[in-house]
Design goal:
The protein is mainly α. The chain has a single domain, classed as Orthogonal Bundle (Helix Hairpins). The chain has helices at residues 21-41, 47-113, 117-196, and strands at residues 2-8, 11-17. The protein has a two-stranded antiparallel ribbon with strand order 1-2. Helix 1 crosses helix 2 (47-113) and helix 1 packs across helix 3.
């Protein structure tokens, strides 16, 4: 367990935690900035009041980050579902394309064995129609594959933002816990001062 001495609003505190010393200092600096910001705006506030207002601000930050995290997760889940739908469509198109290619091969084989000119002409028209349909399917498949790549890129970005939001929420939770510890210490200190009077 790490123990570090930090200053918050001019008062030294010993912080204990399993986190790295650098992290504990970072939390203390954040809380100190919040408390100083509040006391600078109203110098008549007691330390306990400043600590409570700081805790409220930190919890507000934490809730906003949590909301942002929830929104990003919902967006990620939606994109992930669309991605799966596109993958299913692509597989379906690939099967259709394979079937049409096989059928086209059969027709071309029959054409080679058929000597009737009219029959050949009709079949050529039919093959041309099938080839056009294949081109449309290939274009559609290309479009879906492009959209799929874009969705995968969006998924990566959203995963990064989700991870970042998780760290921010964890950071804010730590800050809130430290602030509550400071508030408890301050209350205890005030109680001792009141008893001494």
């Amino acid at each position: 367990m790490n123990v570090v001495t930090v200053k918050i609003n001019g008062v030294e505190y010993n912080l204990k935690g399993n986190e790295q010393e650098e992290y504990l200092h970072k939390v203390a600096v954040y809380v100190d900035k919040k408390v100083r910001s509040i006391t600078e705006n109203n110098i008549k506030l007691s330390t306990a009041s400043a600590a409570i207002l700081s805790a409220l601000n930190i919890v507000d930050d934490m809730f906003k980050q949590k909301d942002k995290y929830d929104q990003l997760k919902a967006k990620f889940d939606d994109i992930d579902k669309k991605n799966k739908d596109y993958e299913e469509d692509i597989q379906s198109f690939k099967k259709q394309l394979k079937h049409l290619e096989e059928y086209n091969g059969e027709l071309q084989s029959k054409l080679k064995n058929n000597t009737n000119a009219q029959y050949i002409e009709e079949k050529e028209e039919y093959i041309n129609k099938i080839m056009q349909e294949m081109e449309v399917l290939q274009e559609t498949a290309k479009r879906y594959m492009k959209e799929n790549k874009e969705i995968i890129a969006q998924n990566k970005q959203i995963k990064f933002e989700l991870q970042s939001s998780k760290y921010k929420v964890l950071d804010l939770n730590h800050k809130l816990m430290e602030n509550q510890i400071d508030l408890a210490k301050e209350k205890k200190k005030n109680n001792v001062l009141l008893r001494d009077k």
